[in-house]
Amino acid sequence: MTYLIDAWLDRPHPYLRILNRDTGEVCAMLEEDALDELRDLGELDFAGLSSSEPGVLKELVRSLFLFCYARALRPAGHDPH
Q1: Could you give the CA distance from residue 28 to residue 39 in angstroms, rounded to a whole number?
Q2: Which of 34, 71, 77, 80 is least surrounded by CB atoms within 10 angstroms?
């Protein structure tokens, strides 16, 4: 399965989506608060988003998926800050 990163970071309410390249289905969605958290943790490499290196992009997608799953498993109302 291949993925497409759809990132809109230069807007008032940024977001990043990971799409299934074949179907267009949204597999993961990170909105402003999640992007801020990733940035604060030093886990989001914006330069990696513009990379054309398959290995860099694969690792970025893997990290984003792991972050989304970890965030979904947090107890309700848990604020990491």
Answers
A1: 17
A2: 77
Q: Which two tokens stand for residue 66?
A: 């792991």
**SS3 for 48?**
helix
Hey, CA dihedral for 29, 35, 37, 38, is it positive or negative? positive
Q: State pLDDT tens for residues 7-63.
A: 998 899 999 999 999 999 999 999 999 999 998 888 877 777 888 898 988 988 999
Residue 8 covered by a domain: yes
Q: Which residues contact 78 (CB under 8 A, 6 or more apart)?
A: none
- Structural domains in the chain (count): 1
Structure tokens at 69: 């799953």
Domain assignment present for residue 17? The answer is yes
Residue type, 21: R
Q: 22 lies in which domain range?
A: 3-72
- 35 located within any domain: yes
